[in-house]
């Protein structure tokens, strides 16, 4: 050991962003799942272009559909992330994804103490089909996970906006939308939220960006 | 014959916008009865946190310097925050503008006791008679999560006591260093610092330590950084 540097972690502090995507059957209607796949890819590409003095974005991808919730990609440095293409089918086991997110955030081997607070991004167009109340309460009210920033998008009239309003950290973090265009707009909002945190001197202060105007979208 | 203690210390401003000062503070006081080392780290989000940090160090030293060996640790855990609050209330602005963490270590030389106080994430670790005792800041939830003076509620110091027979070493570091230390290398850092700096002339030590800390500053690791290391001879 030749210097103090040999005793210090030589990586930037992680800023985890965990995305939980509804891939239930209803997401196949009106091109929603296709729009989501495109928007997710655009989101990852645009975050990759950002640089920060303070943090390195780590992305985790979770989804719920069929009969269960899954971890599709554990937290991974943004530079190594490539967007998957989701297919929509089956039920809406949202409670299952709340449980997985809780397990992730409580685990300090996966999100160490030197991380900034995680951001959870939830997109859904429907009502949960499994037991969700207890898992959501534990996620948003108890332990370490309660400190995460929580952003959500309710897609269409069938989304449970009442439930999602309780899920989000602040009312401004619940975005409603009707169509594919709105999904892309939502991901621009998430991009702005995350990049504002990256560039901030205080990344753990809650910062709610303005929703982008349509003419800022790059179609 | 009293115990002889060697101390190295340095504090360096991080990479930040012009006009924002180093918000860390180190204060050391020594007489023939005791040694007081205290380190504060003012919160970056509080505009007057340097003043808050300096006041916290001053309160600690003022409390211990006259009659340190007779003060009850339980009394201290609440009294230091109360005194800090009283001094802050005499100043302009809101108390949250002065938020700071603070840790201290008191060595009672004749009693051979070590009193450690921690409020927030300034790292303190000690090695007593060869036994390494990490008093970790690693248990915090996330990087900027810390208790502090000036926060809501009634923050109290965590107070720990240790006796020593023959020797001790102690490390204190603000979170710019403490949060970035590789967990299983902390004790090795004790060996490194003691071996390296014991062989350097005293008047050059702090300058060299400062240079060494400056070399750890990067775009990705740009907080204010302070470190104190002390060992008995």
Q: Your description of this structure?
A:
The complex is a heterodimer of chains A (219) and B (233). Chain A is of the alpha/beta class and 219 residues long. Chain A has helices spanning 32-48, 94-106, 133-141, 161-167, 180-199; strands spanning 13-22, 55-65, 68-77, 119-124, 149-155, 174-177. A six-stranded mixed beta sheet of chain A has the order 3-2-1-4-5-6, with helices on both faces. In chain A, strand 1, helix 1 and strand 2 (55-65) form a beta-alpha-beta unit. Chain A is globular and about 60 Å long. Chain B has one domain (5-232): Phosphatase 2c, domain 1 (4-Layer Sandwich). Chain B is built from five helices and ten strands; from the N terminus they run βββααββββββαααβ. The mean pLDDT of chain B is 91. Chains A and B meet through loops of A and helix 4 of B.
Task: Present the secondary structure layout.
The complex is a heterodimer of chains A (219) and B (233).
Chain A: E1 13-22, H1 32-48, E2 55-65, E3 68-77, H2 94-106, E4 119-124, H3 133-141, E5 149-155, H4 161-167, E6 174-177, H5 180-199
Parallel strand pairs in A: 1-2, 1-4, 4-5, 5-6
Antiparallel strand pairs in A: 2-3
Helix pairs in contact in A: 1-5, 2-3
Chain B: E1 5-12, E2 24-30, E3 34-42, H1 49-65, H2 73-89, E4 100-108, E5 113-119, E6 123-128, E7 131-135, E8 158-163, E9 168-173, H3 175-178, H4 186-198, H5 202-214, E10 225-232
Antiparallel strand pairs in B: 1-10, 2-3, 3-4, 4-5, 5-8, 6-7, 6-9, 9-10
Helix pairs in contact in B: 1-2
Order of helices and strands of chain A: EHEEHEHEHEH
User: What's the CATH architecture name of chain B?
Assistant: 4-Layer Sandwich
How many domains comprise the coordinates of chain B? 1
Residue share in β-strands of chain A: 15-25%
Rounded to the nearest angstrom, the distance between the terminal CA atoms of chain A is: 53 Å
Please give the radius of gyration of chain B in angstroms: 17 Å
Q: What is the β-strand count of chain B?
A: 10
The total of helices of chain B stands at 5
Strand order of the largest sheet of chain A: 3-2-1-4-5-6
Indicate the low-confidence ranges of chain A by residue numbers.
215-219
What is the number of helices of chain A?
5
CATH superfamily grouping of chain A: von Willebrand factor, type A domain
For the record, give the distance between the C-alpha atoms at the N and C termini of chain B, rounded to a whole number: 12 Å
Rg of chain A to the nearest angstrom? Answer: 17 Å
What's the overall average pLDDT of chain B, rounded? 91
Q: What is the CATH C-level name of chain B?
A: Alpha Beta
Low-confidence stretches of chain B: none
The main sheet of chain A comes to:
6 strands, mixed
User: Which structural class matches the secondary elements of chain B?
Assistant: alpha+beta
Oligomer: heterodimer
């Amino acid at each position: 050991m030749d210097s103090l540097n040999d005793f210090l972690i030589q990586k930037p502090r992680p800023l985890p962003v965990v995305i939980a995507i509804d891939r239930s059957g209803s997401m196949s209607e009106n091109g929603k799942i296709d729009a989501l796949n495109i928007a997710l890819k655009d989101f990852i590409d645009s975050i990759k272009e950002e640089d920060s003095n303070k943090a390195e974005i780590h992305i985790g991808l979770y989804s719920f559909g069929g009969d269960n919730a899954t971890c599709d990609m554990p937290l991974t440095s943004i530079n190594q992330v490539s967007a998957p293409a989701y297919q929509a089918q089956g039920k809406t086991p949202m409670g299952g994804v709340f449980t997985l997110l809780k397990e992730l955030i409580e685990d300090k081997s996966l999100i160490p103490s030197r991380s900034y607070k995680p951001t959870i991004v939830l997109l859904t167009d429907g009502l949960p089909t499994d037991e969700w109340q207890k898992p959501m309460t534990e996620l948003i009210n108890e332990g370490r996970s309660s400190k995460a920033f929580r952003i959500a998008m309710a897609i269409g009239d069938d989304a449970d906006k009442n439930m999602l309003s309780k899920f989000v950290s602040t009312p401004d973090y619940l975005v409603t939308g009707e169509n594919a265009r709105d999904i892309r707009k939502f991901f621009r909002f998430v991009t702005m939220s995350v990049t504002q945190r990256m560039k901030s001197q205080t990344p753990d202060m809650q910062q709610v960006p303005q929703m982008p105007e349509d003419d800022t979208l790059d179609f | 014959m009293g115990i002889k203690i060697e101390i190295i210390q340095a504090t360096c401003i991080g990479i930040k916008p012009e006009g924002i000062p180093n918000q860390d503070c180190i204060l050391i006081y020594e007489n023939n009865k005791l040694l007081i080392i205290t380190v504060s780290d003012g919160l970056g989000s509080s505009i007057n946190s340097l003043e808050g940090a300096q006041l916290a160090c001053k309160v600690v030293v003022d409390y211990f310097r006259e009659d340190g060996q007779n003060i009850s640790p339980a009394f201290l855990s609440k009294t230091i925050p109360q005194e800090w609050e009283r001094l802050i209330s005499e100043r302009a602005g809101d108390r949250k503008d002065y938020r700071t963490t603070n840790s201290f270590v008191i060595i009672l030389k004749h009693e051979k006791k070590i009193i450690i106080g921690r409020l927030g994430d300034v790292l303190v670790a000690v090695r007593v008679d060869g036994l390494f005792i990490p008093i970790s800041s690693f248990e915090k939830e996330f990087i900027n999560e810390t208790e502090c003076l000036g926060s809501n509620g009634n923050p109290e110091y965590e107070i720990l006591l240790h006796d020593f027979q023959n020797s001790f070493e102690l490390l204190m570091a603000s979170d710019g260093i403490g949060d970035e230390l590789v967990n299983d290398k902390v004790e090795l850092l004790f060996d490194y610092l003691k071996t390296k700096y014991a062989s350097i002339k005293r008047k050059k030590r702090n300058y060299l330590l400062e240079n060494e800390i400056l070399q750890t500053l990067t775009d990705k690791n740009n907080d204010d950084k302070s470190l104190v290391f002390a060992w008995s001879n």
